[in-house]
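DATA SHEET
Item: assembly model
Revision: 1
Owner: S.N.
Input lines:
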Amino acid sequence: MIDWISIPLVGLPLVSSLVLLAFVASADGAARERLGSSIRMVSLVISLAMLGLTTMMFFAQNNSSMYEALGLDKALDWTGLGFGSFNFEFRYVWIEALGIHWSVGIDALSFPMVWLTTFLLPVTIIATWNEKHASTYFPLILMMGGALIGVFVALDLFMFYVFWELTLIPMFFLILKWGGKDRKYASQKFFIYTFTASVVMLLGLVTLYFLQPDQALSYSGSWTGRTFDIPTLTAHAQQGNAGGAWFLGESMQKILFVMLMLGFLVKLPSVPFHTWLPDAHVQAPTGGSMLLAGVMLKMGAYGMFRLPLAFFPHAAEHFQFWLLALGMISLVWGAIVCLGQTNLKKMVAYSSVSHMGVILIGIATMQPLGWAAALFMMFAHGIISPMLFAVCGAFKHHYHSMEIGAMRGMAKHSPWLATSMMFAWMASLGLPLLAGFVAELMMFLALWHFLAANDWSVLWMVGPALVLALTAAYYLWSMQRTIFEGGEETQPPASLNGQPVPDIADSEKFAMIILAVFTILFGVMPWIALDMMNGWTVAFFETLLIPILGGA
Amino acid sequence: MASSTGSSVIIDSTAAQYAPLIILLPMLAFPVILLFGKLYNGEKFWKQTLKEGGLIALPVMGASLLLALWLISDFIGAYGGVQKLSDWTWFTSSIWESGVATKEVSFGFGIHVDHITVLLLFVASFLCLLINTFAVGYMNTDPINDNRNHRFYAEFVLFCSGMLGMVLADSFLWLFIFWELMGLCSYLLIGFYYERPSAAYAAKKAFLTTRVGDVFLMVGLAMMWYLFGSLDYDVVFDKYEIKSVAESNAAMLAWSLGLMFIGAVGKSAQFPLHVWLPDAMEGPTPVSALIHAATMVNAGLYLVARMFPFFGAEALHGELADLAFIIAAIGGTTAVMAAAIAFVQNDLKKVLAYSTMSQLAYIFTGLGAALYLANTLHWHEYLADGTTKNPDYYVNHAIVIVAFGAALFHLFNHAMAKGMLFMASGAVIHEVHHAHHHLHHHDHDDGHHDTPKELVMLADYLEANGQTAFEFFASIDLDGSGEIDTYEFQTALKKADVVDLPPWEMAPLMKALDLDGNGSINVPELDLTLGRIRNEIEEGHHDEFDAQSMDNMGGLASKMPLTATAMLVGSLSIMGFPLIGGFWSKEGIIANTWRVALEDPRFMYPALCVLLGAGMTGFYMSRMWLKTFAGSPKGEVAAHVGPTNTWIKTPLFILTFFSLAGILFASMGFTHWAPDIEYGLMSDHGGLWGGFLYEMEHVFANEKAFFFILTYVALFIGAVVGPGLALSLYGGALDEGEEAKPWFTPVLALNAAVKGRYHWDNSPFAQSGFATALSNRLYIDHYYDMAMLKIVAAFSFKSAEADSKVIDGTIKTIERTSQQLSTKLRALTTGSARDYILMAAVGTLTLFALIWGVMA
């Protein structure tokens, strides 16, 4: 097996982006602009190669020519890949003294996220084909992708944290250089806010590192006797939690759980730690928003599954009420605030907050069904929300305004944009047979099952029910004031200075079509992704949670 | 009679293997039509040969109908059974309840066929095809639809696919999925004329109002899924499953069904979620026909009818009686309310919209009564213990299936009649519109020009203030150039408090005034235009012509004979005129509601409502027909209406037969088209003739005195009092020289006689406060809008403010405070991101070293 496949997966975009940037830096101003189109093409080719690679990795599970092409000697298994097993596992000692490894592997939790990242890179590049300063923009998009994949494939806490923070850098520059009017404030707020939370998380991780039982296993550092290896730590935690005992002690487990969750909750984001998101989104360029909403937010949810939920199931059970409450508040508050927005992109940004609430609720149900709902929501939202932001970007680009109602009768002037908008909006409000519906349905069923089976108040159900109506209300209301109305007498906004109203560019159309096709694909055939998610959650519950929580 | 109560008998049917195609064909036609429309829009062969997609949709709907008929024919004549095609797994997940392992739960899709499916499948596929035919004649000759009909046909086939999918699906989950698909399509089609603000508003209102119901439906489904661990019909309808749920958690099941019923209330436009239906008339007329007859509103009825096995289960005996009452009471309320509002409507389609609402309410009442009977009578062959023979089996069984059958039969009759009525009204509107167009091209050589209402307001303003155009002009020509531009004009309008428009909405005003097209206005232009407008106001010409208003019709019976006939038959069917379509089912509903009222006094309310409603129906339907087709033409337009085209006539002709043939269907046994019996047509009472005799005897010569009297009371109210009042008030003989078909003669003669003899002045009623309230739809829409605006929207705006002021404000305060604290460190902050990152890295490493030092 070519175990080292994750090295090019992470390294190719990172290294190529650095090379491209260095190349650009050496050129003078005029040459830089000329370089733009070729750098864009190189970036697209690299991202497509990565998409090809991950797609082959998916099909290598039942297609012999695919796994032979990948140099594998047998078919991969994704859907049957249990918790704790990884494909393409690879370790290389990095800092031997501290037990830090270049340690990577892909399981059914991370694979959908890795594929999603490689899928969104070319789509983002195509959707923002005409972005200015192309020679530096496209390498930054690539760097973003490399850092994100790094987070998802890392099996070493140190490596995880490095990539986690690395994602901030390209995004920071994307907002700072290509952003809107308040880009400076937004980029710094984005950076400092999430960085502060990450430091708390880091503190938790480091504490965990030093508190772990000194077992001098193969991945331990020669100097500290401790390891950063996530599978090893999970195994330690599993032993420590067995038989109703609390790994690291009850109070320490609770403290560490809160510290780790804090970093992830800010990234997700959950109310009340969400206010960096609308600022960042409104100021960020379209490509930045697409990746930010599409993948970067999911790092938070991914981190929860990978670390605190696996290490501290007792604490998770203890804080179940708070998880549910936070999820519910995010869900409802996000939707209410959406209805009150007059800025299209801000509305979409808050809708992300609302949808991330679904993930938290799914986790809080402590049911495989709810967890699979969360995982599928991560994936589905990762396809739908880039489309939402692509629509917002096109709107801004063509009408020079983000205000809802600045442009009406889009169906007449810009049928492509109007169609894309309606499709994306409908997908986001959970229309059946589009990707988002399955996740919402599963969350709904899991939540009711949890409430009824555990005699929790049925009033919790009011939240999601209300949000179903509110979501429809804000999306439909905004469509009424953009796509509809108008007619012959509708004039373009004054900011267009009397130019004719254009429809979206061909590259944007193409990106919209791709996103729409995949939204339909995963809505009609959710099993493509859900089977592996289901397999993973069941294994997680049966090997880790049920022996620990079931006996208590 | 049936032997296998509740359990599934698999019928071997090849047709069932092809049943998914009934759904898939129209669903796949959706992208095809859309794509071709995009590619060939405006080209001659696309417009003329393919009718902008209409002739792609037509064969597809035809194929769906043929497949559906094949499927239906396999089930008629077979014993009561259920076909469940081996279902495809959609996705699986797991649940952890207890123990060491998780339990797999899977969600699949399959085809389920039983008597309700068969009925709805026929109604939906048959009417979709006819409406499609009608649409080719209607949409493609309307100039307003220029080059956008491909969108209509694409959304149309998707809509049909949603309905067909809903009736064929084998689980409540897929019922819901197709249900939502219909919601999307209704949204798109109601908003078809997207540039009209009223259409945009109506589309949003329809989607949101039904969405409110859907929310409850979804909660109800979550409850049911929890109880049964599945939403598949063959699990939830299994009598042993129902029994075990009834023993453990009957209350939650009742709640679940109640919440699902709210979903049906929204979809079928019942009080209090009825507000969307009249506004949905904003869509083109074929859409109205589709929503009102073939698809959308029937979905709610279908859902309630689907709940029958729960109500009929011996294990839940008496548990669901309250819910059955609620269903009937909502129905009764809506029946009367909608009929009352229909009294004062002058818009032809609005009358029909309220009529739909009222008739659906009848079906709900009928279903409520039937479900009540099923739930409170012991009607199974064996009693609850499963071994004791039920002594009342034959009597009770007949009562239940006749009650249920009446409600379903009314659904059938109403769909046929209402589909026809909408298409006929569409034909009338279409021709009136054409006549108007035709006339106005003679009146004005420049066609009909729309005067912006703001200019009318300006003219009124100048008139009121006694200003001349010149004085006004002088006051607004700020730069004294003798020409005013958009900005000056806008400012002036705002200052004069006439209207405050944003700059981009000024264009139509400027266009109307700027006669020489130089981009600005001078005195002669303003004077001329305002003078013209004032003349128009005096002559009353500036009024928008409303082709849907019955005030512009009258006397059309001689001009559109087939349409008038169809409309007459349809109206009589809806009224429940003896022997025609709706009569058979309506009498059944009234009788069964009263039957329950004799048992349970609560049911007196819906029972009185449906009896009263019968008279009201008679009045408003007669009023509609008489105002449109009888009497003299009101206005010159109505005098110039011509007959309609073949595409439109064909479905009208077919449906006229279907409504007239009510007696045939009744004799065939449609009145007890209910579960738990064989799918035999014409077999229960000895063939067609036997069935006819049985039905006639059952209705007109009932052996029970109460029902005997009730029948004639209902007939008197519905077919004499209601229509009689309308005859005395509206219509009259046609003008001299107008020839009408012989079958109109008795109607028109009766009308003339009654009106001549008993005409009375109804203005005290028409001008009363109650009539005002009715024409304002009892202010319900108003209060809903106010609640949305004043409560929901206002709260959300406050929330958005709080989000940035309070939540983000707290963060900002923390940030500020920490900045102040670190004034001394300020020297280190360079404002460059690179330095921050460096500092962060150094800080992290220090932290790391510190902790390690402490812990190690």
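QC remark: Residues 12 and 321 of chain B are 36 Å apart (CA to CA).
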